[in-house]
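Q: My labmate handed me this sequence with no annotations at all. I'd like to see what the chain might look like in three dimensions before we decide whether it's worth expressing. Could you predict it?
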Amino acid sequence: MTTILNNWFVLVWHTLKKEDDMSCNCDGACDSVVRRSRRAVRLLVLRFVISSLLFAMAFLVPGDKGSYIFIISWFLSGYTVLFSAIHGLRNKKIFDENFLMSIATIGAFATGQWSEGAAVMLFFNLGEMIQESALNRSRSSIEKCLDIRSNTARIHPDGSIVHPSQVAIGSLVMVLPGERVPLDGLLVEGSSSFDTSAITGESIP
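A: Here is what I predict for the chain of 205 residues:
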């Protein structure tokens, strides 16, 4: 949807197919996905912080105790990777990133490279956190685009306001300055400028 900057105009709705309900039909699934994504990001951040502290602490503890702390840091930052690798083996999906990462870190532990094995999984956890954060921002941007939909339409010429789903095909709709275009249509009277920056990303209309 675009916002009108100046003047007014009348358009005729020419949509080929009228939808009975123009609202989201996800039954709350969209909000549920966003909430799960945000919880996942918070969990990844918490795991990364705790694992990093344990990783740093392991260098201060001499002997086998330090090795055990490296293993705890490794498991805390990468237990989802290990479980995904096991799940992949059951489904005969061997050569995926989870399996290869598990083999690499376990191989490092087998050769006595405790810090290297824990560090690899720790940085992999950091990559997952950055990736999930980027996906979360993308979902938020899509939500903002959906929020700009207009929930009202002004019928011409009487000016009555109805929900866009109630406008019959071929009806004339008036759009005033500052209002959003509620429906697809053809301009039949008047002229104006459109602010499409929310859709195109342009800094100016």
